[in-house]
Amino acid sequence: MCYTIRQPETKGQTIPHVNSTETLQLFHDLGVYTHGHFLLSSGRHSDEYWEKFRIFEHPDVTERLCGQVAERYRDQAVAVVVGPTTGGALLAQEVARQLGVRCMIAEPTAGGGRELRRGFMLHPGERVLIVDDVLTTGLSVRETLEALQAYGPEILGVELLIDRSNGEASRQFDVPCHALLSVAARSYEPGACPLCRAGQPLVKPGTRKIPDQR
Ligand SMILES: [Zn+2]
After folding, report:
1. What is the pLDDT of residues 139-186, one digit of tens each?
2. Nearest to 62 by CA among 8, 113, 98
3. I need a labelling partner for 210 at 20 to 30 A (CA). Which of 5, 28, 115, 201 fits?
4. CA–CA separation, 107 vs 147, rounded Å?
5. What's the gap in Å between 37 CA and the centre of ligand 1?
6. Centre of ligand 1 from the C-alpha of residue 34, in Å
7. How many angstroms is it from 1 CA to the middle of ligand 1?
8. Ligand 1 centroid vs 15 CA: distance in angstroms?
9. Angle value at C-alpha 61, between 55 and 64, nearest 5 degrees
10. Model confidence, pTM
11. C-beta of residue 180 within 8 angstroms of C-beta of residue 161
12. Which residues have CB under 8 Å from 89's CB, separation 6+?
């Protein structure tokens, strides 16, 4: 696995944050990141598995990570933080709390895409920050951007905890996008998996059982 970390730009101000090694070690300790031989839901095999929801098991960690996001936008007059369900919504709540601004949730619609429901309303020109936990294809952020378009807000940027596309997927957005940790995802077709060739037992994430080989 290869990874890089992007530190927040703080304009000469020192804020508490974790560096790349510490972040990865933290995620490993929390069970967010696991190394092994895994069967992904796509059917492909991987030497790593990310269980992003383990971050939210520890609100103090969520608070600290969101603190890095909030610090980057503290001087930018954010009016609303919006996050797609479910992880993005939890992060949006914490980032908005730290910035002292409103929080909204972009929820899936029956026909695909996302929308603001429950009476959430943006006003034209309101300054909006979008947050999400993990970006892979960028679909949830793309849907969130589309859901907000009709309100005419000013989208300041997209903040992610982990970019699993190594920067590729985020290039599709026409607003600034930043991730605390950027990781290139690596997976294999079952027939071309070096871990299978090495005889390492295959594990279905979230279980301790070895699934049936097909
Ligand atoms: Zn394999």
Report:
1. 999 999 999 999 999 999 999 999 988 788 888 899 999 998 888 778
2. 98
3. 28
4. 9
5. 6
6. 15
7. 15
8. 42
9. 130
10. 0.83
11. yes
12. 83, 105, 106
| CA atoms of 158 and 137, how far apart (whole Å) | 14
Buried/exposed 164-176: b ≥16 CB within 10 Å, e otherwise: bbbeebbeebeee
Going from the Cα of 25 to the center of ligand 1, the distance in angstroms, rounded, reads 24
Bridge partner list, 203: 38
For the record, the structure tokens of 187 come out as 């997976």
Question: In the chain, what are the domains?
Answer: 3-10+17-188 (3.40.50.2020)
Q: Where are the alpha helices (DSSP H) in the chain?
A: 20-30, 53-56, 59-72, 87-99, 139-149, 194-197
Query: HSE (CB half, 13 Å, CA atoms) of 159?
Result: 27
Best CA proximity match to 206, nearest among 42, 38, 55: 38
Beta carbons of 156 and 145 less than 8 angstroms apart: no
